[in-house]
Amino acid sequence: MQTMEYLKTKPIAVLGAGAVGKAIAGDCALGGAKVRLCDLPPFAEKTLFGVEKTGIKFFGDQLNLYGFERHGQARMDKVTTDVAEAVKGAGLVVVATPCAGHKPFFEKLIPALEDGMVIHIFPDNYGSLILRKMMREAGCTKQVIIGGWSSSTYGSRVEIKGGVILPQIRVYYRAITLRGAAMPACDTDAFLESAKYLPSMDAVTHGQGAVAGDTVMDTGFSNVNPVLHCPGAILGVGVMENFGVIFGEDKYKFSIYSHAYCPSISEVQYAFYKEECDLAEAMGVGIQPYRKEQFFSRENVLGAEYMGEDYVIPFDQQDPIQFGTGPFTMENRYITEDIPVGCHVYHELGKKFGVKTPVIDSMINLASAILQRDFYQLGYTLDYLGIGHMNKEEMNAYLREGVYHAK
């Protein structure tokens, strides 16, 4: 494996200034790195407000099994809306945007790529496949490592007061293990090694460590967001929409974990997960293994990421750490991202590989009815990811070795 020590003295560029981007930028700066934070118009006017002048206030309980914490006022080396300016001379480039931000950022990132850069996508959500496809279409041959993670390193929220996005980030918990992979997978060892030079990964590096996923499709299947968010939000919508209306509670203290999750929803989530496992097996790729009983608690399978596999909050107990994490409306990324990206990719793979996905499809159908839009039409396709024309063997050659078979 190639040494990644050259990254130690290079700046870190963080693209995206939402909850994940601000958390990573602040944590990396407090960890001693020179950090450039970048966001694009029209969001930048609000998301970068105050950051250049005051820095980012990084705080919160940061619950994790090993007690790793950082607190303080994090100062950025550069705050900009220019991607090329942000990444010039950087070693690590972190992409921390919702899926809708991938393509706009990638369009500006590709011409600015430099040999030796390592791109980390949090969470990957097939962004590594899209970036490789866009590089190929642009004729970009820069020698870079591209990979992504199954989740963010935190549960984090931006502080908003009176509709104003403040330069403050609250971190509820820190992951002590994450699953990551490179595209192609032959770069995964170097990709995981590079994470040791990303201070926002320190709780993982000094915790239970990063785990190598079996290709970026593994990290896609291992992203817990669709299996947690979609059944939780859709089947718990009655609780969410009545919270603060007839339940006499503060609407903005609602959480699907604390107030919606129950044994019946867990049964649906486990059935959803089994369909994912069937898809992974049919494709010949891996997936994060879970036991059925891990789905039956307040934190569900999420708790293992930051408190270890023995962490269980029974359904007859509350989960105060999640209070206020929402969602508060169905117009939320729990649905608007996890249905058309997560669920629809599974649906497409099911059609391609002959795997039935009735529970996953039911999430798409119900979300389409609730929000009155066709998520089958709006969802990611395999062609969009650049793999729709490949058979199983060709797809695995591409995912593992980067051997691309044209149409």
**pLDDT < 50 stretches:** none
Give the end-to-end Cα distance, rounded to a whole number of Å: 33 Å
* Percent range of helical residues: 25-40%
> How many helices in DSSP terms?
20
Instruction: Indicate the radius of gyration in whole angstroms.
Output: 20 Å
Q: Can you list the strand order of the major beta sheet?
A: 5-2-1-6-7-8-11-12
Rough shape? globular
- Structural class of the secondary structure composition? alpha/beta
Number of strands: 12
Query: Biggest sheet: strands, sense, closure?
Result: 8 strands, mixed
Mean pLDDT over the full residue set: 96
Sheet-strand content, in percent, reads 5-15%
Describe the protein.
With 407 residues, this protein is of the alpha/beta class. The protein is 40% helix and 14% strand. The strands form 2 sheets. Strands 5-2-1-6-7-8-11-12 form an 8-stranded mixed sheet, sandwiched between helices. Strands 4-3-10-9 form a 4-stranded mixed sheet, with helices on one face. α10 crosses α16, α13 (263-283) packs across α16 (338-353) and α16 packs antiparallel against α17 (358-371).
